[in-house]
């Protein structure tokens, strides 16, 4: 339609009438939820992992909670959580005709502006800020919700009691809800979509399962199965997470799933619909806004596979009209498209920006959605874009105009645009890092959704306005030129704690062997198989690779596989599940390989000492802390162990627990020697110019000690646990990494063949060591079935934690478990402890340099 089109309505679509019984039930429910639930008696109502409440029990709890909320008709700021406790408090507000203002997280701006009479925090603690109800609240006002997602705007949507009832009845009607249905809180209850799921099910006599677990968690799907969940709701990102986690969406008792909260790609809609049809699960695609209480349209499941680009027909009781666009709308659209306008009893009363607005009545009888769309010949609505400058990504509604204004206040000349899948920010200049960081902070979006494009000047229309369409195309072009760039940046940000510059690489950001496995796994998730020198390539170069081929086998770096297998051999041998001793010595070779690969990059830089010493210092700090803790709890270790010199100063008669951490002692001692060695600038310069010759020179005295041509210590020493007779393995791994090209690589392999056999008294142990080191020397990558490649990565990443923590678990576990199960429990426990520590680091926002693993 051209800008000058006539003002007449183009096309309309009218929804069916809601089910009369459900409509009556809905109005009764929102009149007095406690009475209605109480009348349902012993039917299930609220379920959690370890608690079950009948409808009568919930009704009684609502009555009791209402008595605690204070006298008068109060404005109550209520922090929403996915718990039955929150739902009871929320329904108590409705029952007592208070007005709940739902918040999520930090609500200080909203509380300061609206001055609620009472606040209820996430733990259910009630704080009466006033002994009397101070606000003039309109009689029809029932609920206040934020419309701005994460942008922090204090503008609220005013929803009426009648609107809540109408929308709940409409949703229950088209979903065909009954007392046999059961929903799960897969979405936040602070979000209008998540809250509408609760409303519709309670109105229909159905029940709800409360959980704050993610759809990627096994515990979530255990609840779906154990508590017989029939209905699941999600935004597009929910289904991306389910795919990524390979969760059992269609292997459960689900009757249907619903999708709203933003546009889902038609091919994804069709795939979900087809998969659901094979398992007897319906897919409802829906369209809504907070300003319409929740839902405005739904696509019947039988049309999802054939009309995946439609959002459907109006909900019962609602209607759409397509009206002409303003002449100022800078957009070219099809002739039968225009502004989408919705009418229905669920349209909001209006907005509130101050407490005084809460006294106003209904100001609207229709909702101008801000979307551009068309209604096809079958009466189905198709959304083509947005007229106003809002975006909805991951279920968050982003005010693009406010984003631009905030970036301008930060000193950035910027303009944003979105296609509801990614957010593009064009900036004048080159301060990409600041623009991305501030955009992520303002919107709460993950960085891989944000594309920052530097330009000389922002693209503008002839009128002088910023051409947001051109900004959006810049983002699409950038994504096309560098597929996966966002995901590459997200991987770097997750490991290093901040958004990288395009020229940054894993090495330049001081990545080390303690974090590179995690980094490689996350990059493989984004890009597929990685080139061997990925750690030296910049973010821009990695992003330019695009998504590479993913076959049935993942090609995992050999040093990662060896590290994981060696850790399994250490644990299995120590518990005598099997006895294949060699793991720790293999780990020494891998440590030398990784030291040369990461810590010896650019030792001529001023921060060479941090680069060389940091991984050894981390190992020393963690090991000493653990041994100190063990001394307090079990009292077995001595001062020599605490100082990491037990392999020389300890009593050689103690061949059991006194030698448990010899490998870590050796590693730290080697690190100290290398730090002293590299302290001289001439040494660092020589190593940079002649890397293979340098390590070869170090190997000469090391091999003399290995073959005991020169012996340090007396006859009582345990040679295979001491640095002087094992450092050659570390240097051998170092030499393998430095051997570039065929002749050098085969020369180092020949050295392995000459030096490894005969090191141990037992030939089979020496042979295992030989095989492992030869693989490191000659095979850069090992094909691993793709389902198992993450397992190798996890064990390799957690190897330090597993090594430290496995000893104290052996005796108590082995006393009541078979050795096979002892092995499994110890490995899983080590992985869980490592994961918990990783989560703690991320939660506390620590930079990688402060991380312990």
Summary keywords:
853 residues; five-stranded antiparallel β-sheet; five-stranded mixed β-sheet; disordered C terminus
Explained architecture:
The longest helix has 26 residues, at 608-633. Helix 30 (799-814) crosses helix 31. The chain has 31 helices and 28 strands. Strands 1-17-18-20-21 form a 5-stranded antiparallel β-sheet, with no helix packed on it. A 5-stranded mixed β-sheet has the order 12-13-14-15-16, sandwiched between helices. By secondary structure, the chain is an alpha/beta fold.
- Unreliable parts: 1-8, 148-152, 482-486, 843-853
Mean pLDDT: 84
Tell me the helix content: 40-55%
User: How many alpha or pi helices?
Assistant: 31
What is the total tally of β strands? 28
In this structure, how is the largest beta sheet organized? Answer: 5 strands, antiparallel
What's the N-to-C terminus distance?
59 Å
Give me the side-by-side strand order of the main sheet.
Answer: 1-17-18-20-21
- What is the structural class? alpha/beta
Q: Compute the gyration radius: what is it? A: 32 Å
Q: Estimate the global geometry from the Cα principal axes.
A: elongated
Q: Strand share of the residues?
A: 15-25%
